[in-house]
Every structure is written in structure tokens, then in C-alpha cells.
Amino acid sequence: MYFIANWKMFGSIKSVNSLNKVISYSKTNKLKAKIIYCPPYTLIKSFVDKTKNSNIKIGAQDCHTQIKYGPFTGAISSKMIKDLGGKFVIIGHSETRAENDNKKINLKIKSALDEKLNVILCIGEKLIDKRKNKTKYVLKKQLLEGLKNLKNLNKKVIIAYEPVWSIGTGIIPSENDLKKNIRFIRNILKISKKFTKSKILYGGSVNPKNIKNLMRIDNIDGFLIGGSSTNEKIFIDIMKKSIN
Ligand code: PGA
User: Fold this and answer.
1) In this structure, which residue's CA is closest to atom 9 in ligand 1?
2) Domain of 206: which CATH number?
3) Distance (Å, rounded) from C-alpha 241 to C-alpha 196?
4) Which residues pair with 88 in a beta bridge?
5) Which entry of 64, 93, 125, 232 is annotated as an active-site residue?
6) What pTM was estimated for this model as a whole?
7) Is the N end or the C end of the chain the one with fewer CB atoms within 10 Å?
């Protein structure tokens, strides 16, 4: 089971200390959870240093399409992430999709894979898509265009299904819808004939109250967790409740 913490624009240098309990938990946990932290760029290096004697891995929240240095103010490349010790990168999160079409997302994934980073590709429908019954159309398009012409690196690409209307709202999809949509994603990956073994995660308002219900959905390989991951007690509580 993957538990990926997406810190978004949260955290200061002092936040490194908030990893202490999670590091201890990661050494004892029975779940054999794969814990990955994706802090803001400013904290990647200190998170990498802090977790170096543990199994916790660190990632970034986005990257540029180009690996080489270039005149792109404010941008960070996958090579720079790797240079800091990052092993993962989130690409296509809905909070970044306004500046990223599927083509750009595809190029970003390519650059990350070329640098041997693991990719967490986020896909998900907006509320309006759901209302118009276009969820499947959106998921298929985001997947097939996002993964177009890439090398077959099954284990390097994780898919995170995050319905946009679930992010930060406290609302999660029904068990039935979630099961159906994860199955649909799995089938699309089969059609692509690549990425058939990719892990599929769920993200959107995961918290200690709903984790047990989410764990009942047997085709989910883990969770991408925003708000609830910035508090170590809550994050550990989620992981603990996922086993009991
Ligand atoms: P949330 O965010 O858990 O705060 O809803 C999840 C995400 O955006 O990845």
C-alpha cells in the first residue's frame, strides 16, 4: 500500500521535525506501507537528508518538460529533483492542470522517466464532467494522451485517481463509483498495452474517518493524501486505521 503525502504549498524549515514520528512508525509498521513525501521544492533537500536512514522516499510536486537547463523562470527540471535526492514526481495534479494540457503532461512524464524518477500521474474528472456523465471520457483522454509514446516502464508510473470535486472538500466518491472508475482505469491501461502493472491510487479528502471504508475497495493500491498528511499524528492514524 502506498501512502503519498502531497504537502502542496505548506511547510517551513521547521516542518522537518514533524517527520520524526512518521520515521519511527515506518520502522515498526506491520503494513509494510510505502511512504512517500512530496513537499514543496524548498524542502526536498532537507526531507531527503532527514529520511536517509529510513524507507521513506521523497518526491516533488511537478517538473518542467525539459531536462536541460534553460531560461524558464520559476521552473524546476526532473534532473534538478534527482540532484536533490528526489525519487518521485507528481505530474498532472488538478491544481496544476490550468497551465498543463495533456501534451505538456506527457512531455513532463517523459522527462521524469528519462531521469529515472518515478511518476505519480494524477487524473480525475471535474464536477461538471461528472454531472454531464463524461467521467469515463475525461479519464480515458487524460490517460491515453498523458502516457502516449512512452517507454513501457510499468513500475515507474503510478496512477492517482483524484476526482477534482473530492480534493479538499471532505466529499469522497461512493464505494461503487470508486470501484467502477478504478476498474475502468485498469482497463484503459490494458488497452494501452503498457503500464498494465501500474499501481492505482485514490486521492481526495482521505482522512482517518473514511480510510476504513476506502480500504474495503479491493482494487486500490494506496492513497495520495493532501491536507491530512501535513499533520504527522493524523497521517499515522490513517496508516494505522488502514490495517486494523
Ligand atoms: P486532499 O488533497 O487530501 O487535501 O483532498 C489530495 C490531493 O490534492 O492530492
Assistant:
1) 226
2) 3.20.20.70
3) 29
4) 59, 118
5) 93
6) 0.97
7) C
